[in-house]
Specification:
The protein has 202 residues and is an alpha+beta fold. 27% of the residues lie in helices and 28% in strands. It has a single domain, classed as 60s Ribosomal Protein L30, Chain: A (2-Layer Sandwich). It starts with 15 loop residues before the first strand and ends in a 5-residue tail after the last helix.
Length: 202
């Protein structure tokens, strides 16, 4: 196959490709992105200390995935329309599902990521991400079907929102190293921004 199914209006920019081994189209999301669909297709992302929440309306068969880097914090790091941060990423995912025919009462989710793949002097980002997302889901009373968080390995996550099937694959050493290097660069940048702004992170 060469043409993916029609994407919902806000998600036409997301890269999708045909995966011969899985015999399906896959929408690949990057940190700070979400993807919501009604189609029989997969959503996938790579995770280290970041979190991906796979969520769907189990009755109306619409759902998607987000991928956020940090939970939230004081000052500039808690506000703004930025899906790199957990609070906005969660609200955005829920709102897009509901806007496209979902019902909040029917929501269920799978949670992946938050690994200890890098060392940070400031904090353990993975642990803080896990704490944030679990608290958020409890407060919002959203059912957790599966939780695979923590650990020391990078993951590739796959989710089929229509069926609700979610699974992860542990990355080999080469691919895992690339994820770690990318996150190390990001942590260095965010720590410098925090120091410059005088912000106490989370």
């Amino acid at each position: 196959m060469s043409t993916p199914p029609e994407a919902l209006p806000n998600f036409k920019h997301i890269k999708r490709y045909w995966d011969f081994s899985r015999k399906n189209f896959i929408a690949k999301i990057l940190p700070g992105e979400i993807y919501v669909t009604k189609n029989h297709e997969l959503v996938s992302t790579l995770l280290g200390s970041c979190i991906a929440v796979c969520m769907r309306d189990r009755i109306n068969h619409i759902g998607g995935m987000n991928h956020f880097k940090l939970p939230t914090a004081d000052g500039n790091f808690s506000t703004g329309n930025n899906a790199n941060y957990g609070l906005y990423a969660m609200e955005l995912l829920i709102n897009e599902i509901m806007k496209n025919g979902g019902n909040r009462a029917n929501l269920e989710c799978h949670v992946f990521g938050g690994g200890r793949v890098i060392s940070s002097i400031k904090s353990n980002i993975g642990d803080k991400n896990i704490t944030f997302v679990m608290r958020f889901l409890k407060e919002e009373r959203i059912k957790i079907v599966q939780q695979k968080t923590g650990g020391s390995c990078a993951l590739q996550v796959y989710y089929h929102p229509v069926t609700g099937h979610a699974f992860s694959v542990t990355l080999d050493e080469s691919r895992s190293r690339k994820v770690k290097e990318e996150e190390q660069r990001y942590v260095a940048r965010i720590n410098q921004e925090i120091e410059d702004a005088g912000i106490t992170y989370f």
